[in-house]
Each structure stands twice: as C-alpha cells, then as structure tokens.
Specification:
UDP-galactose 4-epimerase, domain 1; 2 domains; 7-stranded parallel β-sheet; 9 helices; 34% helix
Length: 327
C-alpha cells in the first residue's frame, strides 16, 4: 500500500535530469516517500550511479534519453501527472563561448517537454528549477521575486528566463499548474560543478597555491541540497495561482575568498598562497558572472520552509565531503 504524502499521493512523477546532482537527491526523497518515479536523463553530466539503489525497485523507471529527442520524452512521460524539470546544461560559463549549447539544452529542451505535456494531456503539475541568474546584477538585495527589470548577464540566465516564459504561457494556455523555483547556488553531496569542486581539484594538483577567479570578493548565497529538496516538494497548489515563482536560497551569503579558506582547512592544508586572477568587469570570475547575489526567501518561508544551514555551514559540509572524495 502506498504511503500517503499529500499532493503527490497516487501520482506518477517524472524527474528530468534525475541522475544529476539535485535531481538524484530529489529522486531519493520521492522514492523514500513511496512515490512512483520516472527519470529521464541522457547521462551527459549525471551518473547512473546516483540512481543505482533504485534501479531494481518496482516503483522506479529509468529512461536513458534526451529532451531533444521527442520519442524519448513520450516514453518517459507516459502516465505522469507531475513533472520536475531539472535537466539543463549546468556549466554557466559555457554560454560565453558556446551559447548554442545552452539554447539547445535549456530552451529547446524545455519547449520539447512542454509540447509532449500538451499532447499527452496527462500532466497536471509542472515544477521547474530556474536560476537566480535571471535577475542579473540586481540593484535590490535581498532580491524579491517581483524585482524588475529582469536583465540576465549570462546566456545561461537568459535561457532560464526564456524557459520560465514558455512554461508560464503553456500553463495559462493549456491548463497546467506551474511552480518555478529560482535557485541560488545549490551545493552538497554528488556536486561535480561549481566553486568548491573547482577549488578542491586545483588544490589536489597543487597544494601550495590556489588560483581564484576574480578578485575574491564575489559574494553569493549557498544552499545545501537537502534544504533545496524540501522546498521543491512543498505543495504550492494550495496557493491557488496557476503559476507561482519562488526564490530558493539561504538567508545569508559568503565570498569566494572565505570559501577558499574553508576548502583549504577541510583538506587539511596550510600555508596555501591564494592567487587572484583579478577577473573581468570589476572583479567578476568570468564574463556574465553575477558578482553579488542574495535572494529574498520570505515567500517560500510563508509556506513553512526554512533552510537548516546558512551559507558558511553549507559550504563547510560540502567542502568536507569533496575533500574526502579527492584524497
């Protein structure tokens, strides 16, 4: 007999990108709550190892496929009432040299998925993981959901904003209910991208010196993946709006130099020289990087959610895991 879990009870769920970092943690949470779960992943950045514990489970189906291939989507979406759309190219910096990849993997992939949803007429709820990068360099910090104008400074952020617009239009036109989460930097176990794995990899190669992109003062919000998953599973249906947008991040921030110090400490290193590249456009790590990011999360907290870890605690917990993996 299936366990009761509110709005997900008796529904079949599809997680795109479910073999990836955040997606696999979401799959773990869904399966632990006895929710029948499908995963669609092309394994370009995810790993089947992240789902291995569920492969033989009767309530789990893994579909190796691509959101650019319509038959792959149709197979995976069959009988699914809820979709968590997490699949995307995770490399934000890639957009400055290969914008077409973000267009294909973010905008076109989202469009293909929405078209399959429209044609299947089975899906009722569409949950999308967007990004804080849609705000660009916000002049209001903490930045609320109704901040305007939205001016992404990266191609990645632009494709996430375009995907939000597509989802919103499909929700209103075809009767979907959509929830959009604008994520801060999510970190934790299984993370293979971002500043902490980057620092750990560099220190493994050279434990005496660490290159830090930018001037080290880039300051952002970091959210531990467990806190992220709890928010994604909240029932926003009871709010009554067809499309809801939530910021999802910690309530504070930390800078790149502090993260470097924490990683060095957790790796058991001493006397590491920090070499700052100086960065671009006022000390940013790369073109399109947002230097300061802190999201207002009051709207999400009104539903009863609150992060258990602050940014520094999330960074330290992640650095501890990553440092153990790099030994």
């Amino acid at each position: 007999m299936k366990a009761k879990h509110g709005w997900l009870d008796s529904r079949v769920v599809l997680v795109t990108g479910g073999a990836g970092f955040i997606g696999s943690h979401l799959v773990d949470a869904l399966m632990a709550q006895d929710v029948e779960t499908h995963v669609l992943d092309n394994l370009s950045s995810g790993s089947l190892e992240n789902n291995r514990r569920w492969l033989a489970h009767s309530g789990f189906k893994f579909f190796r496929g691509d959101l650019l291939d319509k038959p792959d989507i149709e197979n995976a979406i069959h009988d699914c009432q809820v979709i968590f759309h997490l699949a995307a190219n995770p490399e934000v910096r890639l957009g400055s040299v290969s914008p077409g990849i973000h267009f294909e993997q973010n905008i076109k992939a989202t469009y293909n998925l929405l078209e399959a949803v429209r044609q299947s007429a089975t899906t009722e709820v569409f949950v999308f993981t967007s990004s804080s990068t849609v705000y660009g360099d916000a002049s209001t910090i903490p930045t609320p959901e109704d901040y305007a104008p939205l001016e992404p400074s990266s191609v990645y952020g632009a494709t996430k904003l375009a995907s939000e617009a597509l989802i919103t239009a499909y929700a209103h036109t075809y009767g979907l209910r959509a929830t959009i989460f604008r994520l801060a930097n999510v970190i934790g176990p299984r993370s293979r991208h971002g500043v902490i794995p980057d620092f750990a990899g560099k220190l493994k190669e050279n434990p005496r010196e660490l290159e830090i992109l930018g001037d080290g003062t880039q300051t952002k919000s970091y959210l531990y993946v467990e806190d992220c998953i709890k928010a994604l599973l909240l029932d926003s249906e009871r709010l009554g709006r067809r499309v809801e947008v939530f910021n999802l991040g910690s309530e504070d921030w930390t800078d790149a130099k502090t993260i470097a110090e924490i990683v060095v400490e957790e790796m058991g290193l001493r006397d590491v020289a920090f070499r700052f590249t100086g960065g671009v456009n006022g000390g940013r790590g790369w073109k399109g990087d947002v230097k300061y990011m802190l999201l207002a999360v009051d709207k999400l907290k009104s539903l009863g959610w609150k992060p258990e870890r602050n940014s520094a605690q999330a960074v330290r917990a992640t650095a501890r895991i990553v440092s153990q993996e790099t030994k």
